[in-house]
Sequence to fold (759 residues):
Amino acid sequence: MRKLSRREVIKLGAGVTTGAALGSAGMSFATSAAAAEMPFKPEPGARLRLLRWKRFVQGDEDLFEKNIAKFTKLTGVPVRVDHESWEDVRPKAAVAANIGSGPDIIIAWYDDPHQYPDKLIDMTDVAEDLGKRYGGWYPAARTYGTRNGRWISIPWGAAGNAMVYRGSWLKEAGFERFPEDTAGLLKLCRALKKNGHPPGFALGNAGGDGNVWTHWLLWSHGGKLVDENNQPAVVSPETEASLEFARQLYETFIPGTTSWLDANNNKAFLAGKIGLTANGISVYYAAKKGKLPIASDIQHANLPVGPVGRPMELHLLTQMMGMGYSKYPKAVKSLIHFLMSKEQYLPWQQASIGYITQPLKAYASNPVWTEDPKHTPYRDCVARMVSNGYAGALGYASAQVMADYVVVNMVAEAASGTLTPKEAMKRAEKRVARYYRI
Amino acid sequence: MDSDPDMTLHAEARAAPVRVGLWTRFNNSRNLLGWLFMLPAATVLLAFLAYPLGLGIWLGFTDARIGRTGVFVGLENYAFLGDDAVFWLSVFNTVLYTATASVIKFGLGLYLSILLNNRMPFKALIRAIVLLPFIVPTVLSAIAFWWIYDSQFSIISWALVKLGWIDGYINFLGDRNLARASVIAANIWRGIPFVAITLLAGLQTISPALYEAATLDGATPWQRFRYVTLPMLTPIIAVVMTFSVLFTFADFQLIWVLTRGGPINATHLMATLSYQRAIPGGNIGEGAAIAIAMIPFLLAAILFSYFGLQRRRWQQGEEDA
Fold:
C-alpha cells in the first residue's frame, strides 16, 4: 500500500473538515402524480422562508434544492432557503422563536423544539399521516418530536455514528467479525494496540464525535445523568463501571485523544495512524472520493451493546420546526410533509450518501443502505438510538448539559486518570444538579 | 384668541431681542459648539459601547435565555458561578494565561524593539516581516498552530522524532499543563509584534542627545538603558502593556480553534466559557455574568497602568517616594 505523505494527509483532513463534496447519486425521479394529491394544501398566495444547517455533503444540498423547486412548481409557493453553519442554527432558531419573526421553517438539532414548544406549530396531524404511510416512527424519533403526546416538530433524520475500522487489521488482530458487545470491543482494542494500529476516540471538547461516543459509553453500561423524574442520578455502580471501562479502553488509545476535536479522528484514520474510531460515514466517503487505496479496506459496524443488553446510542438528530408566528402554517405543513414523503425523501437520502438516517421505518429499505454493504450499519442508527437527556425529559437542562460537555469531561477525567471514576462521577453529578436546578 | 393686542405687542417686543440673542450667543459660545461637535462621537460611544455594556450587566442579573428576556434574579447567577468548579478553573486559567503571556510578550517585545532600533541592512524589510504574525488573521494563525500542535501530525514532534531526540509524539494539546503552555506560546507569537513595533516607535522619539550626554558622562550601555531608555519609554510601555493585557485577557479565537477549552477545560478562558454557556448552551444570563466577572480584572489592569506606570517620578528615573 502506498504511504501517504504528510501533505496529502493535511489536504485530506481539510477536505474532511469542510465536508466531503460528493456528486449527486444521479437518481432520476419523475414528478409523480401522487405528489399532486397532497394531503396538506398550502394557503393561496403563501410564500415561505426556510433556514437549515449548511450541508456536509454536496449531494444533500443539490437534492434538497431540487425538492424545493419541485414543491414550488407543484404548489406555486415560492420558498427561500437560507443555509447557516450547523452550530449557528441553534441560537438563531431560539431568537426567531422568542421574538416571533424569522423563517417559517427551521431545521435545527436535538432538543431545540423542547426549549420553546409553545412557539411551534402543532405537527400532530402531519406526523400521524407520515407515520401511517411510511411504517411508523422509530421510538427515539417519537421522543424527540413529541411533547406531552403532541408532535411539536418533525424529525428529519440523524447523522449517525458507527464504528469505523480497517478490515484487514481486524483480521490481523484475530477477529472474524466486529465484536457485538463492549467486552469484545475491549479485547479487540487491546489486540489492535498490540499490532500497532491503536484505536482513537475523541475526548476533547468535540461537540459531535465526543458527545456521541461518550454518551453511548455511559448509557450502554446502564449509567445515566438523570432518572425519569429529572433527578440527578449520575452516581451509581453502573456509571462507575462505564468509567472503569473507559479507563481500560483509554489505555489502548493512540496518545493525544484528550485534545481531539471533531476532525482529528478523521485525519488520523485516513492517515492510517489509527485502526478504529467512531464516526459518521464521512471518513469512508472522503477516502472513496479521494480515491485512497484504504477506501476498500474501511469497514463499518454498529456501536457494540453493553451490559444493559440493548443498543443505547446517541446520534446527531435533526428536526424540522414549523414556527408558530408563520403567516402560512398550512404551507409550512405542506412543505414539511412533502419533503418527508417517499418521492422526495428517498432520492435526497440517496444523494446524501447515507449521511442521514431516516426516522421513519419504511425508509430503511432505501437502496442506499444496501447498494454498498459498507453503508448498512448506518441504516440502523435511529433504531438503536435513545434521546439526549436520557432517562429524563428533553429541554433546557439536557441541552445545556450537553453544550457544557459534562459527559465528555467526566469520561475524559476518568479515562486519563486525572480523577478516579468515583471522583469523576461525583463531579459530574454536581454539574448536572446545577443545570437541573436541584 | 382674544388677548389684549397691547400685551401681545409687548410680548413680541420682549421676545424678539431674546431670540436673536440666543442665536448669537449660541454662535459665539465655544463651549456649546464644542459640545455639539462632540455629539456624534458621544452618540456612537453611547449606542455601541455604553448600551451593550449596560445591557450585559443587566443580563447578568437575569435568567435570560437566547431570545427570551428573562426576569431579574439578583445575584443568583453569581451565586451559581461561585459554586462552579469549571468557572473557577476558567478564572485561574485566564489569570495564568494573561500574566504569563503578557510578561513574556513584554520582555521579548522590548528586546526585539531594541534590536530593531539598531542600524542594520534591510531595516524596513525586516521591520515589515516582524509585523507579519500580527497581520495574519487570528483564525488563520490559530489553524496553523492547530496543525503544529496536532497529536498525530505535529511538525515539531515529527522533526524531533526524525532527529532522534524523542520517541513518541508530544501531546501538546492533550496534557493539561502542556496544553496551557502551548496556547500561551501561540498567544505570545501573535502578540510580540504589537509590543515590539509600538515600543520601537517609542524608542525613536528618544533624542540621541540624551545618549550622547550619557556617553560623555561615562555611562555603560546598561546604565544608558536603565537611566535613559527605560524612563523615557515608560509612558509608551504603560499604554502598550495595558492594551496587551486587555487583548490577552479577552482572547477567544485562539482557544476556540485550538482546544475549545479542552482538555477537560484546562484551557477554558472566561471569554470562551462565557460564549459556551451563552450561545451553544443558550443561557445568556449566566454567560453575561461570566463576562461581567471579567470587568474587575480588566479595571485592575487599567488602574495599575495609569496610577502605577505613569507616575512622574518613575518617568524621571527616580525611585518611588
Residues 77-315 of chain B form a domain with the MetI-like fold fold (CATH 1.10.3720.10).
